[in-house]
Amino acid sequence: MPPLVAAMISLGVLGAIDTYITATVFPVPVWVTFIAWASFYACGGGQHGLVKSIVSNWTGIIIASLTLLVIQYGPQHPIFVALLVGLGTSAMVMVSSVKILNFPPAIVFGFASLVGTTAATNTSVVTSGMNHPTLVAMAAMLLGGAFGLLSEIGTSLLSTKKPATA
Is the pLDDT of residue 9 over 70? Predict the structure, then answer.
């Protein structure tokens, strides 16, 4: 079948499975898995894109966690928060000089996903246990990256292969 139709089927079926899994078996924010899924493709796909995406996403999550931790214990003033977010943004740009992290949007996806996870789950970075938003966001990003790889494989398997001509 044409690659677009193959992708439509592969991603559609896996998107439904992802949504079901995150609503029942593995309760992480489904929107974070979809961000990670897109990040996988943005980082080039394949095994290298998967590793690059996850490492970048998790780096953003760690930077966001540290930023939110300082915000938690600092003065609750908009200027202080803004300065810290600016420092976190600078840190994301700085770490992008490392080869595996050289696609800054994937780092930002992680940062934003952690901040969103804290809001969506009504938890803070000082929460203890398995509901810690850092762990939840990291798990969701890992799951989304895996779905990205699976969808790429599914699309490839469903796509029409043109025989090589002699």
Answer: yes
